[in-house]
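S.,

As promised, the fructose -6-phosphate run. Input:
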Amino acid sequence: MKLIILKDYKDVGTKAAELVSKDIIKNKNLVLGLATGETMIPFYRSLVSLINNKKVDASEIKTFNLDEYVVFDKKNKNGYYYFMNKHLFSKIRIPAENINFLNGNVKNLDLECRNYENSIKKNGGIDLQILGIGRDGHIGFNEPGSSSKSRTREVLLSRITRKDNSRFFDGKISKVPKKALTVGIGTIMKSKKIILLASGVSKAKIVHRFLHGSIDKNIPASFLKKHRNITVILDKEAASELD
Ligand code: F6R
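Predicted complex:
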């Protein structure tokens, strides 16, 4: 595992965007796994800037986002597609058919998950997966207790995740959906390369447990320690409890 510690969350985003751009330059058809959340905002800002300043051409990459709430679809303002469209897709030139997203508003959620998993496989798997980390150690929406072999599926969100995400729902936990669809840990582990970003003091404890603790089902991110090509980028605050 490669560990990079930078000054602040903006630098974390800039560094991640530089690394992603390098991989897109090497492979214009890169299959890129993406995440949402506050940590990702400076990353998408930097990536958009690199793309729009013609430092990198991302018009032929394929993207697969990690997760979406049940029963949200593309139009829901609190949904993850909406977030991605706002911060990335609407700002760059990328064909709509290259963007893959889980739809949490279909009758057959199992079929939706199976199709997504098959689509990842058909595209040759994820070349580079970007991840954030939740305060409970979740990656995507793989909450504590998730199996290391889990695939794309419907999950129940933990209270801590719903509380954290209530900031996007007028601060009301009751408004945060209880269920979501997420790409599984087994699927994430099959990515050829992973970059995990964490910033802010609220992540310091879990970052310490993730990096210094043992592999533990109760900290889903800890499974990533078995991955052969993972880079973790932290800001000083997120790294503040490391020895
Ligand atoms: C969302 C996702 C989540 C977030 C995590 C951290 O697509 O993958 O695992 O990365 O909840 O979110 P922030 O950055 O908002 O703290």
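Residues 128 and 193 are 5 Å apart (CA to CA). Strands lie at 2-6, 31-34, 62-65, 67-70, 99-100, 128-131, 153-156, 179-182, 193-198, 230-235.

- D.
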